[in-house]
Amino acid sequence: MTEPRLTHLRGDGSAHMVDVTDKAVTRRTASAQAVLVTRIDVVDAIADGSLPKGEAIGTARIAGIMAAKQTSTLIPLCHPLPLTKLDVDITPEGDRVRIVATVTTKGVTGVEMEALTAATVSALTLYDMIKAVDNRAVVTDVMVLAKAGGKSGDWSRE
C-alpha cells in the first residue's frame, strides 16, 4: 500500500496552496468540538452568567463565529470560503464546557478548519473569561466530529 500524498506539498517538499479550480461546487458541512475543563463552581458561574468578566457563553459564541470567518487569514494554506451557516453550541456539563461548532458552505473545499477554528476560539474565549477564577483550566479534546460533502464523502467520528 502506498502512502497518501500530502496535497499541500510540491514534489520538492515546499508548501503551496492546493489548486481547487476544477473541483465541483457542493454543499459541505463539518462539525468540530473543543472542551474546557475547569471546576464545577466555575462551570456553574459560566452557566448562570455570574463571572466577573460577564456573560461568557454569548461572548464565546460570537468569538467562535468571528474566528471561523477569519480562518483563511489565520491558517496559511486555507482557502477563503463563503460560509453559509455557522452554529456554535456551548453546553456546560459538570466540570467542563463542551463547544461544538457546525459550519456549512456551498463551495469547492471543505470547512473542517473553519469548524475547528470556531470551536477552539470559543474555548479560548471561555478560558480568557475564567482565568481570574481558575488559571488551571484546560482546553482539550479539539477534534473534527463529522464532515459531509465533497469528493471524499461523508465521515463521522461516532
From TrEMBL:
Listed name of the protein: Cyclic pyranopterin monophosphate synthase
Known pathway: Cofactor biosynthesis; molybdopterin biosynthesis
Keyword Repressor: no
Lyase is among the record's keywords: yes
Lineage top rank: taxon: Bacteria
Keywords linked to the UniProt accession: Lyase, Molybdenum cofactor biosynthesis
Signal peptide region: none
